[in-house]
Amino acid sequence: MEKIAVAAINHKGGVGKTTLSIILTQMALLKRNRVLAIDLDPQRNFTDALSFISEYFKDALRVKSSLEPGDAECKEEWIILDCPPVLGDITKEALDFADIAIVPVRPDFFSLSNLGVLYSFAEEAGKDRSQLPLVKVGYDTSRLARMVEQVLTEKHYPVAGRVPLNRLIPYNITLGRIWSTGLTADARRPFDQMYNRITSAYTRMLDGDFASPWKD
Ligand SMILES: Nc1ncnc2c1ncn2[C@@H]1O[C@H](COP(=O)(O)OP(=O)(O)OP(=O)(O)O)[C@@H](O)[C@H]1O
Ligand SMILES: [Mg+2]
Prior knowledge:
Blueprint: E1 4-8, H1 17-30, E2 35-39, H2 45-57, E3 61-64, E4 78-82, H3 89-97, E5 100-105, H4 109-124, E6 134-137, H5 143-154, E7 159-163, H6 168-175, H7 185-206
Helix pairs in contact: 1-2
The chain binds adenosine-5'-triphosphate and magnesium ion.
Residues 13-19, 41, 43, 45, 85, 137, 163, 165-167, 169-170 line the site of adenosine-5'-triphosphate.
């Protein structure tokens, strides 16, 4: 696969941008890729979390806090950009750079009303909607989650994944363990599927398929 740059964006806070950035970084590393992790959020949660695991991955992981000229030619196969919860210049810069910007969304109506603004921002930045797939985070069988999911389906937003909330994940990240320590194979599977969907959609985009890269 070609070099891939994936940003996690959403101007709504606390939806899982940093957690998914950490998980994708670790997955790419565990599949023997090198990763350049760029933490664009002044909160520096991405940087802190990666510092706990950097000794496992040594030179395969490089972490920095801004985009610089030359980053597109870096030696790493994956570039992962964690963005702050603002649609400002930093997120615009990340969008310009990224091949794919995943958009984590929680099952609530405020998240839904925000999405229109986010897609307009991305379209003004010259991105195709297919480059901004949602990742549905924590959609359970509750009535609210089912209602929100129905609206998302009706709007035909592209979807890169549907992952559960699992209390072990923040616990592992805080303790400096691999994110999936102690998770069952069933609990991990949605995250593996998200990673695989991102890589296969990117391969389709490289082949010029922007119409349906997220098709099953
Ligand atoms: N899949 C998950 N399972 C369990 N907890 C999660 C999961 N994803 C995120 N969380 C928790 O939800 C909270 C918000 O997640 P996170 O910090 O990743 O969101 P964010 O979008 O990066 O927030 P911010 O906008 O502040 O940067 C954190 O406490 C995190 O541990
Ligand atoms: Mg964050």
